[in-house]
Design brief:
By secondary structure, this protein is mainly alpha-helical. The protein has 6 helices and no strands. Helix 2 packs antiparallel against helix 3, helix 3 packs antiparallel against helix 4 and helix 4 runs antiparallel to helix 5. The termini are far apart.
């Protein structure tokens, strides 16, 4: 740790295998905070979950206003799941990151990722892939509506969206099952 910054003395934080890992605390939208600040616990990486568990955990994080963390859950699913489901999990991760960017005030990136993620999820579902209870039609409507609203708001100088208030339900069942 550097005495001046409270952070690493040299270079980037690394894990035991030498991969870059930021040890800085993060806020609920995944933005880095200063070393020593109180942050939101990060999602553990590489967790293998059953698909339904992935959807439930991501939904919980989205409702809590933590779409960046939900994206990490979806990322674990596409990295550990069957290759044929990659488009579903990547698309869901992109939707979560799109909401993250919109909540951080990056309207252009947010809208772009919302549309890209919706295209992936929609294409996967159109191909007949298992969606594990995800309300694809509702999710695609949500993404399209939010992307348009984020773009219009940016043009009008509106504030970033509230991630918790804008969170998609993901499933048709109110309890997230």
């Amino acid at each position: 740790m550097s005495e001046e910054s409270g952070g690493p003395a040299r270079g980037r934080d690394r894990d035991v295998e030498g991969r870059a890992r930021s040890a800085r605390p993060r806020d609920g939208l995944g933005r880095p905070l200063p070393y020593g600040a109180a942050g939101v616990a990060r999602q553990p990486e590489g967790v293998v979950r059953e698909p339904g568990e992935t959807v439930r955990e991501a939904r919980r994080l989205l409702v809590a206003g933590m779409p960046f963390h939900a994206h990490e859950v979806f990322e674990d699913a596409w990295k550990s799941g069957p290759g044929g489901e990659r488009e579903l999990w990547q698309g869901l991760a992109q939707l979560a990151v799109g909401l993250t960017h919109a909540a951080r005030g990056n309207a252009t990136g947010g809208a772009r990722l919302l549309r890209r993620g919706a295209g992936r999820v929609g294409g996967y579902a159109d191909g007949g892939g298992e969606t594990y209870g995800v309300d694809v039609a509702g999710l695609l409507r949500w993404a399209d509506e939010l992307a348009g609203r984020v773009e219009r708001g940016a043009a009008a100088g509106a504030a970033p969206v509230d991630a918790a208030a804008e969170a998609p339900r993901l499933t048709a069942a109110p309890d997230g099952s």
